Amino acid sequence: MRILLLLALFCLGLCRAMAAELLIATGEYAPWTGEQLPDGGYVNRVVREAFAREGVQVRFAYMPWARALEALRNGNAQASSFWYDDPVKAKEFLYSAPISEHRELLFHRKDVTVPPWRKLRDLRGLRFGATHGYTYTAEFRQLMKQGALNVEEANDDKINLLKMLAGRIELFPLDEFTGWQLLTSDAFPRGAHDLVTTEARPFSIQYGHLLMPRSARNEQLMARFNAGLARLRADGTLERFRLDLYRGSGMGQ
């Protein structure tokens, strides 16, 4: 009888542990997220540690970004890391406090003449690339919808950068860390980054967030995550993670 009781308690504890593990849908966006990156990239490192401070275990599932969002919608994942601000998504999902800050720049070949511009509409004579499933600014989405900008979508950033190098598109908005790290990686010919530059004016300044479906339970869980994130910020852990990111980035090539 005692053995049965111990087994029952063990199973109960195991079930609770399994229930406490949060499945987070994520994708490839080095150096911020990536299955082969140390600690899963800066953002997923922060997410894991913030939850750990609150006693919550997490597991990451890597997939294309559009599929990650769908996994969140259909209940196959409890959270998704990470997404930029988007008023449309905010109606459907809870947004965490900001995890990361991103300066998106317009990448282009050095031999492409980009006219002086203040608004994206000023660049309507050039061909843009965009990545399927990404969150872009409201201005960019509206101009795409209106056909005021010539935009070609591809499945990932690597394809877009290769198209840019080949002259099939002329401008590609991308996080500056991600862009330079990709261009200096083995995925591109040696010296490819020497052919590329960026516009000084940012395409956008974005903030990365953890997303969860809206529910009373998830409001409590998100509050725990935000509390853990605040603790990381207060004790200097977040700053240490940022320094690790800067040291490992290929930015500024």
Automatic annotation (TrEMBL):
Q: Where is the signal peptide?
A: 1-19
Give all residue intervals belonging to the Solute-binding protein family 3/N-terminal domain.
Answer: 41-240
Q: Which UniProt keywords apply?
A: Signal
Question: Which InterPro entries has this protein been placed in?
Answer: Solute-binding_3/MltF_N
Recorded superkingdom: Bacteria
UniProt-recorded name of the protein? Bacterial extracellular solute-binding proteins, family 3
Originating species: Chromobacterium violaceum
Note whether ATP-binding occurs among the keywords. no
Q: Does the keyword Signal apply?
A: yes
